[in-house]
Structure formats: structure tokens, C-alpha cells
Amino acid sequence: MRRFYTLMVFWMVCASATLIAEERTVREKQLADAEFRLKSIYEKRTFTPATFPGKWLADSSDYWMLEPAKPGAEPEVVKYDAKSGKRINFFNESQLVVPGTNDRLVVQRFLQTPLANKFYLQTQTGNWLFDSKSGELKKLPNEAPQPSAANSFSPKVDRIIFRRGHNLAVADLANGRVTQLTNDDHKDLDNGGNISWSPDGRRIAYIQTDSSKVRRRPVVHPTDPTYPEVTLERFARVGTPIPTLRVGVVDSEGGATQWVKLPSDPGTFYINSVSWAGNSNELLIEMLSRSRDNRKFLLANIEKGEIEIAYEETDPAWIDASYSANAGLEWIHDGKEFVLISERGGWRQAYVISRDGKQRTLLTKDKSDIIARGPVDKSGEWFYYIASPKNATQRYLYRIRLDGKSDPERVTPDDQPGTHSYEFSPDCKWAFHTYSTFDKPPVVDLIELSGHRSVRILEANAQVRKHASSLIYKPTEFLKINIGNGIEMDAWMIKPRDFDETKKYPVFFFIYGEPHGQTVLDDWAGGQNHSMFHRMISDLGYLVVSMDNRGTPAPKGAEWRRAVYGSLGPLSTEEQAAGVIELARMRSYVDSSRVGIWGWSGGGSNTLNAMFRRPDVYHVGIAVAPKPRPELYNAWFQEIFMRTPEVNPEGYRKAAAINYAEGLRGDLLIVHGTGETNTHLQITESLVDRLIELGKKFDYMSYPNRDHGLREGKGTPVHLRMLMTRYLLEHLPPGPR
What is the largest CA-CA distance in the chain? Predict the structure, then answer.
């Protein structure tokens, strides 16, 4: 009998060893396949689509680009006729020969100037101006600097404004003579924000930034690991002084700056934009209060030194956190009125407002959001914009009459569900149109706006589509998750290649969950460009899911977006957890005993909150570049949504993941770059110290000298994703049960 039991134990040990060896072999193959796919994604860029480089000429009949005549040849400046598609060399052979020589110019950079017939050329032998009417090619003086953008040129294209250190200067293009406009030597003063020539070329407006009151923080530069260099750099943290701003106007021939007397104390506001208000005597200045609960458009008369408020609005929370896409205004009807985007009515809508602000017409009257403003077709009296009233994950082009007497018209065809973007010709007759979905890479075509008629394909991305189709075995499922109280979250789900709905699968959630961005978008870049990584993870045997809670900038009305006001973290944590529970109820193949979550930046913070506050729901978490202490984050972002700890101490206490670290029960991996300039390493290391103090088991990976995107250094993107993949396989067993 003893011999029998001995043999049984022996065979059991052998069987166990064989099973372990087989599992190790399977795991090694999984990791090898994962690494191959990750290198294809992040190093070979196999799934990165090409964009269309064409730019419209001022008359809208042609578009130009730098393009080689054949593979391997030097690029040439060519233009295409919009109607026929005929390809024409912008220059004939003689025009690109240096006068007096046989040397042919090779154009490296090409810019349109404010004059429709004049173009800037940067070549291997200097900089030139080309006149398309006369055919004249004029070499610029060697002393003349390279323009940073087309608006560097004066309206007559006889001068260029440029930055010389922290100051502004103007160079004469005829003789290279330089005129210094500002002479501030203090390194904390910067003269060069929002530079703008007056229409008559006499004046230049700019923003001066004074950072002298902003506190410094030490930054280590590992030039020599033994004796690294340390510099002190300005960083405006929540509740501390921010840069002070001034708007100045200086004569383009030089002289003293005339400062605009702004109606707010220094250091209490931001300036979103400065431009000339349709003439050379008035400036339009868009001011935002420090907490973004007030917005003013000021008209500053430079001659009289007077300021009028053309428009002002306030909101108890914030005006519009995504104002960068809808900032500013556009003058119409010879400057008598302007088009403005505002959320004052509870939705992001368009208004036509008189110059004095006394008359206001609501254009988009339906209860839906404008996602992004488009151009005004002044000849046709149309305002174009991007919206998606019925599906917050998609994007379509609409237009409406400027008189506000008609209903909006959808321009994008109904049979093209997904995401659309447009680059309009100056006359709004044509557009470069980009169309994609979550599962289909973008195609760019030229359309005639009238009837949305496709004229020709400009970029098919055929190879990207071919490679993608070999890995996308079934359509990504978009679904609605109702968590009660009238709250319905959008979500997407990627299923494994060999998915069997009769079995249960672990779920890996991707979260952002903050007001800066959506993750649930029906476009190729949906999921914040992590979609091909998520497909690789899914094929290892996971359901990969993302949900957008309230507070994310979905086009669902101001109330949806402002639901998080006062504290970022608590609401997203609870709504995401409720979504996990509801998804498991909706779909029998969701294994609620195997739930992982990961996110980056704000998503990293929400990952920490999920692991600390809802350990009953989440079992594995990967937090990349998180901010576990929002009171130490930058003032520019955090104060919009939470004000300062002095006025909102409880909101900051509830938002800080570090205050809930004792709740950790699952497996947690924290990843950070030591060269972080956004969510500083020390913020995360204070959480690391807290977890050590609590005796919690966790894993921590720091990438030397990498910044917030963790891109620096050869191999970093693949190494990071392999680290995440191994951690997931080890701590959240894949595959069906």
C-alpha cells in the first residue's frame, strides 16, 4: 500500500510539473505574440493612418502640397485643380534656378503669406519670396529670420515679426534691417504671446507674461548621473500665484508699448485670445477668470484708450471647459455682428450678437450641443458646425442660416455613421473630408459641399485598412449602460477572437473619466489611440470595455458635463462601478470575479480611486502617470473643476485617492516617469510612501527621465505595454471559464 501511495504522489508531481510547463509554454507564446503586435503598433506604426497634407490656396480653386514626383525624389511644390484633379507644378523649371547659376532650389518649407499671390520658400540655399502673378523669385536677406507661421508676415508682406529670446523684433524683408520692439531682459518676462499685426500693418498686438510670482520647483537633469544638474523652473500649482498677463500694442517701427487697461487685477485671469476687431484701431480681447466662471469679450479702442464689454457671461461652475475648440468669435456683416458659441442656455449653442452686445439671436435652438465650430460662409449666409444630437459617440457636419429663421441642416450623408471632420476651402465650396469609425481607418476625400458630393479619394490608407482588417474579427460593440436615475452611459466592448458567449470572460476596463476627454468615440482614434493595444489584450482572452461617466465632455448638455463640479473622483468612481455591475447583469459572459481596470493621467487617478474605494468590484489595477493628490496639480486645469483647497477643502479631500489608500485589496501596478513635468513624480511617490506605511502589497515601475507621455527612449512604448500585459496575465487569469 505504501508503495502504491508513493507512486500516486510521484505521478501527481509529474502531472503537476507537466501542467506548469505547458502553462509556461502557453504564456511564453502569448507574450511573444503580444510583443510582435506591439512592435507593429508602436515601432513600425503599421496602424497609424496617413493624413492628407494638402492646403487650400486663397482663391479655393486649387490646393497645394510638397510632394515628390516619384519615390525617393526631392519633394516639389505642386498644386491640384479642385474640379479636375489635374496636377500642376507650382514653378516651372527656370523659376527654381538660382539667378546667375545652374543650381536648382529644393523647397523644404512652403508658406502662404497674407497676400494671395506671394509665397515663402525655405530652401537649402536660403529663404525666398515667390510672386505667382509676376513669376518673380526674390531672395530674402540672410539676416531675415525664418517665419514661425504665415501670420508672422505683415499684411503687405514686407516685414516679418519674430522672437529674439524673450522679446519681439521686426525684420525688413528688403534689406534685413532689424527693429527691436521690446527690450525686457528679465528672464521671467516673456513678450510674444498671441502676436497679431493690425490690418494696416502699423501696429502689433501681443501678450506679455510675467511669471516672477510663480513659485519655482527643482528639476533634475541627469547629464551626469553622479553629479546631475538641477534647475529651478516655474510651476503654478493649485492655489498658488499664476502668471500675470498684459496686452500691449507697439508701433511696428518701434517705440514704447501702449498697455491696455484690463478690468481685472493682475494674476486673477487668463487671456484666451487677442485679435484686431475688424479694423486697425480696436482690439478684441477674450478674458477668462482664474476659475473660468466668467468670460468677457472686450473691445479696446487703442486711439482713445477706452474699453467696452461686447459680451460677458458667468456660470456657478465654469463657462466651458472645452473652450479651446469653440473659443473666440467670428465677425460677420462687416463687423456689425459676431457669431459666438455659449453654454448659457444649458447646451453648447451658437448665437449671433450685435457688436454692442445689445441684440442676441439664438441660431441653434434645439436642445443639443455643438461639438466644434466650423467656418461662416459669409456669401451664402451659413454657419457650419460639428454635432451629433442622437449619438454622443459620433461626429457630423451641420449648417444653419445666420438669420436664425431656419432649422439646422445635416450636411453629412445619413448612410455614413461614424466620425467626420472637414477642412474647408476659403469660399466654403469645397472641403477635405475625413471619415472613419472605431473599426475602420480614415479615408480622406475631396468633397463639394453642395450635396456633399465626393469628387475623388485623396488618401485611402489602403495598407492600414488591410492590416487592420486581418485583426478585427468582429465589429466592436457599442452599447448603452443604464445605471439608474436617468443616467445612461455610452460604452464600447471588444471581444476576443474566439469568443464564446456561453462562457465567462474576465473584463479589463479602460478609464479616463475626467472632463478633458471622452474614451467612447466611434472613430479610428477612439479610446484615446489605445484601440489596437486593446485588441491585442482582448485576443489574449479578455473582454475590453470603456465607459464614459457623467463629467466627461460628451455632447449631452451642460448638466451632464458639470455633474463633477467640486470634486473629480467620487462621482466617476461610483458611476463606473455601477456600470461594471450593470454590464455583468446585462451580459452573462461577463465574469464579475475577474475585473481589471487601467488608465493614464486622470484615468490613472480614477484607476487608483476604483481600486481603493471599490475593492468589491475591481481586482487588478494599472495606474499610469496618476495624480493621487489633486491639490498638488497645476492650477490651470484643476481649479476649473474644483476651485482651490482654501475655498473647497472637502472637495479636495474627497478627490484625493491617497486618502483612501487603506481600501486597497487587489493587485495594483503604478507606473510613472521620473522626468514628469505634468503630474510630478513626487506626487505619486507620496502615495507610494503611504502604501508602504499601510503595509499594502503593490508594484511600482518608474521610467527614468520620461515625461507624461512615456515616449522618450528607444523601446519605451513597447516595454511599457509589455509590462502591463505581463502584469495582467499574471494577476487576472485570461480566457473563458
Answer: 110
Q: Assess contact for 629 and 680: CB atoms under 8 A.
A: no
CATH number, domain with residue 584: 3.40.50.1820
- pLDDT, one tens digit per residue, over 106-126 is 899 999 999 999 999 999 888
Range of the domain at 528: 31-49+466-731
Distance of alpha carbon 682 from alpha carbon 221, whole angstroms: 15
Residue type at position 371:
I
Which of 298, 316, 334 is the C-terminal boundary of a domain?
316
Residue 8 neighbours by CB under 8 Å, 6+ apart: none
Alpha carbon of 573 to those of 407, 514, 568, 643, 686: distances in Å?
A: 39, 11, 9, 20, 21
Q: Which ranges of the chain have pLDDT less than 70?
A: 1-22, 321-325, 527-528
Does 307 reside within a domain? yes
Q: What angle do CA 372, 376, 380 make, to 5 degrees?
A: 140
Q: Which three cell numbers stand for residue 396?
A: 457630423
- Tell me, yes or no, whether 187 and 44 share the same domain: no
Adjacency order of strands within the sheet including 137-139 = 107-112, 118-123, 126-131, 137-139
Q: HSE-up of 65 (CA within 13 Å, CB side)? A: 13
- DSSP of 212-251, one letter per residue? TTSPEEEEEE-SSSSS-EEEEEE--BTTS---EEEEEEEE
Hey, what's the cell of 578? 455601477
HSE of 107, CA atoms in CB hemisphere, 13 A: 25
227-233's contacts with Cβ under 8 Å and 24+ in sequence apart are none
Q: How far is CA 403 from CA 332, 337, 417, 603, in A?
A: 11, 11, 29, 43
Q: Are residues 564 and 709 in the same domain?
A: yes
* Total number of domains constituting the chain: 2
Helix axes of 2-42 and 531-539: crossing angle, nearest 10 degrees? 160
**Grid cell in block for residue 52:** 492628407
Contact indicator for 259, 285 with CB cutoff of 8 Å: no
DSSP-derived secondary structure letter, 631 = G
Cα distances from 4 to residues 14, 18, 203, 670, in angstroms, run: 15, 21, 101, 50
Q: How far is CA 696 from the centre of its chain?
A: 35
For residue 24, the model assigns a pLDDT of: 74
229-276 tens-digit pLDDT: 999 999 999 999 999 999 999 999 999 999 999 999 999 999 999 999
Residue 327 in any domain: the answer is no
Residue type, 708: H
Residues 395-406: pLDDT tens digits?
999 999 999 899
For residue 590, give the C-alpha cell. 461577463
Helices vs. strands in the chain: H and E counts, helices first = 11, 41
3-state secondary structure of 268: coil
Of the residues 293, 316, 339, which one is the last residue of a structural domain?
A: 316
Helix/strand/coil for 651: helix
Per-residue pLDDT at 409: 97
279 vs 202: CA distance, rounded Å? 12
Cell numbers for 370, please give them. Answer: 455643438
Q: Is residue 502 part of a domain?
A: yes
Q: What is the DSSP letter of 564?
A: G
**In this structure, what are the phi and psi dihedrals at residue 357, rounded to the nearest 5 degrees?**
80, 0
Pairing relationship of beta strands 282-289 and 349-354 according to DSSP bridges? unpaired
Is-contact 581 574, C-beta < 8 A?
A: no
Residue 149 belongs to a domain = no
Contacts 24+ apart (CB under 8 A), 633-638: 633/237, 633/238, 633/679, 633/683, 634/235, 634/236, 634/237, 634/238, 634/678, 635/236, 635/237, 635/238, 635/239, 635/240, 635/242, 635/290, 636/236, 636/242, 636/270, 637/516, 638/238, 638/568
Comparing CA positions, the residue from 57, 109, 110, 47 lying closest to residue 81 is 57
